[in-house]
Amino acid sequence: MKKKLVVVGNGMAPGRMLEHLFELSPDGFDVTVFNAEPRVNYNRLMLSPVLSGEKTYEDIITHDDAWYEQQRITLHKGSKVSRIDRGAKTVTSDNGITASYDTLIVATGSNPFIIPLPGKDLEGVLTYRDLDDVEKMLCAARAGGRAVVIGGGLLGLEAAAGLRQQGMEVTVLHLMPSLMERQLDPAAGYLLEKAFADRGIDVITKANTHEIVGKDGQVAGVKLDNGTVIGAAIVVMAVGIRPGIDLAKESGLNVNRGILVGDDMQTSDPAIYALGECVEHRDQVYGLVAPLYEMAVTIAENLCGNKAAYTGSVTATKLKVTGIDLYSAGDFAEAEDRQEIVLRDATAGVYKRLVLKDNRIIGAVLYGETSDGPWFFDLLKKQTDISDMRETLIFGQAYQGGSPLDPMAAVAALPDDAEICGCNGVCKSKISNAIVGKNLNSLDDVRAHTKASASCGSCTGLVEQLLSLALGEAYNPAAVQPMCGCTELGHDDVRRLIVAKQLKTIPAVMQELEWKTSCGCAKCRPALNYYLVCDWPDEYADDYQSRFINERVHANIQKDGTYSVVPRMWGGVTSSKELRAIADTVDKFDIPMVKVTGGQRIDLLGIRKEDLPAVWGDLGKAGFVSGQAYAKGLRTVKTCVGTDWCRFGTQDSTGLGIRIEKFMWGSWTPAKVKMAVSGCPRNCSEATCKDVGIICVDSGFEIHFAGAAGLDIKGTEILGMVKTEDEALEHVVALVQMYREQGRYLERIYKWSRRIGYDEVRRQIMDDADKRKAYFERFVFSQKFAQVDPWSERVSGKDKHEFQPMATLSLEAAE
Amino acid sequence: MNALTENWVAIGAVSDIPRRGSRCVKNGDTTIAIFRTVDDHIYALEDKCPHKKGPLSQGIVHDGCVTCPLHNWVISLETGQAQGADEGGTLSFGVKLDGDSILLDIGGAR
Ligand SMILES: Cc1cc2nc3c(=O)[nH]c(=O)nc-3n(C[C@H](O)[C@H](O)[C@H](O)COP(=O)(O)OP(=O)(O)OC[C@H]3O[C@@H](n4cnc5c(N)ncnc54)[C@H](O)[C@@H]3O)c2cc1C
Ligand code: SF4
Ligand code: SF4
Ligand code: FES
Q: Which pLDDT belongs to residue A399?
């Protein structure tokens, strides 16, 4: 009999607990989870990047629906538990679902505190806790105007920065004389205030809010005690959190500020554990994830009968506002028995302060340059005696022993048990061992195997340095390779921002993303044009001047400036009529070379540009359309003769290839896409070195992807098996759409999928039917605008100027 | 007879060339590429890349330059000189605007 485990609340802490539990005991528990939020588990820490538009909700999901299915967890979304019957051992949600438990975990998190001001119930008074709050803020930001954020702590500042980035005017009201006074000393608070002012955010300290002023039930402004009124379209209250103890209290569990637990994490009822921000342990209530994750592990161990104890945590904080580096840990109030070491560098905007007691670090504040944070935190946690290095302590780890300031040296010198990832409590040796032992070579690998840098991401730099240390030159951080000299942003950032900021023209992108050149260059313009075509298929007007010549004139430029033309031959099949038309065209225009290509097409080479429209006209009359052999798009689907002719054929490979080609022609992709369908594993159409390939077998279709046979050569990966042609088409289309949406311009499928992980592709395309269907539908939608034959358009006069000289002077002279 | 002895020849209107684009003018055996930038400046270069004679008129026009379609050299529209690490130059021709009409100086290639 499996034990029935019920979890109330589906936040970050229980998510981690469940992961650990299933590692320890894959089949021991029958788990039911209730979540008041109508969604799966996501990374709450990353709400600020979602607010600022740097990430999307999809990016921050921790466990998707497929995960719950796989672990056989019953998840009740949008179901808030309103009653625990401890006698009957059941819980009941307000939408009427009852579940019984052997063990219950209460993980109700915490609630934002709302100051009981007049006007607090007005429409437009928001808090900052979950995705719904973010969506409300984004919605308000689209309408514009001013946002007033009450509270200059971590959350308030992240909200303010995000809203500002979304284009709102922002004022932060803070009661205390300096920002983040719980984590920062006044000097660092001042630097922070300046950094916010530089971003155009008004910060008012010592601001006591008197009331929220409304008009017609809607927020209109905020009035301060001194009479000042600040107009506001929304007010965000971020003044602190209160542990969510109501449910526990009503059920008769012992509570104080939080739900009281012992070192074993049990509440006053031995069948009930409490976990997360709702917990009070040894008089401490926590508001950061690192301690909660430790609690989570303790509970998972105890559920499996391994007596584990949680003994409390010391915490460190990092502010996650892009461009502001801030780190603080421990205690830094001034007192008699304490000494401090301060380093200021005004020009570099750096401030560092260490608070010492009995030659041990008890507090650290770093601003502007935070890479030594983990080292100081390590000394602090271990209470290391620092007398020997006191002179140079503040200069950081790299300075110890007189070695030069090399950032890699600092990481190299960290002790093995130094904590790198604070959120997930991952130490250096665990990461380094995983890199070497499991042959990891990317940040994502490290995240998957160790969880380091998988939560708030602020230790990414350190993890990358560990990768560099272990792999040397072999590791090149994918992080910030700018698109080109016109911008600091990488392709991924640009793609994300195009969507987040709804940028729909090249000038809009360049303006909003602060391009450094007035009209881009030959690297970024074609990339931007593609991203816009892909993201806004119905709205964006293709900018031909930003396409390479081949795509502008729909033919391939050759070294002598002439062009080559490749008519489409669906699946590589042709007929006598088509061949005759090609032969006639070749004669008529004196085309010097006719060649069969590797993709089962016929290439006509050496055509003068002026002749292109006429050549297309003749080919068009015979029923040919452009083979798009020039396009960053679907090129060819190569097929074999399959069941029609071949004695080994298992399926109609020719028919399927033609069907796929007719479905997908005309679509633009980040780089060229070549496909093939083989009728049996003898694989005569060489499907296993294509971007996408299909091998037919008796029982269905094996779909392959990520092959290459060009500069690089690489066999395909297997995506999976499907039974019918319809399914094969759906999977192939969804895969290509995923690539269209995520690939960097000129990045072939094999590079893109290696970058994001083959498993991730399989997960989204094979395992997640909803995702697959959504990709498929987006592709179908964009095809409505893409499947226009460019040749016939030009034969009928489009872009006529492209093909004729503007003037021919010798002629004029003769007249 | 006239056009040959005159230096300045009217070749068409500014609006004949797409912004950030180019059209060609044939002058005997020479092809001259006429460029129009995003802010409507007009330049004229021989349509021959200093690298391997690529047709510059087929390139992407950005700021004051064109990127050759064959191997991505970047050529200054004003001087015809290759930019960055590449070395070489192509002939550049004088251009004047008379209202919307473009005049090209075919006598004095620089
Ligand atoms: C914007 C933001 C940024 C943050 N940044 C950081 C950071 O950089 N570093 C850091 O360490 N921490 C950060 N935090 C704090 C961190 O997110 C929390 O400490 C952590 O999420 C708490 O986890 P939890 O599981 O206890 O609760 P939560 O993640 O809050 O989850 C509780 C869940 O339980 C649900 N629930 C509540 N009551 C019921 C009920 N009766 N029935 C069913 N479901 C219920 C709630 O809807 C909620 O989904 C941040 C928080 C926010 C909001
Ligand atoms: S792949 Fe198989 S079915 Fe196709 S031609 Fe070759 S042997 Fe025949
Ligand atoms: S292999 Fe090289 S030389 Fe041959 S067609 Fe391709 S790019 Fe040109
Ligand atoms: S011919 Fe112009 S770059 Fe090579």
A: 65
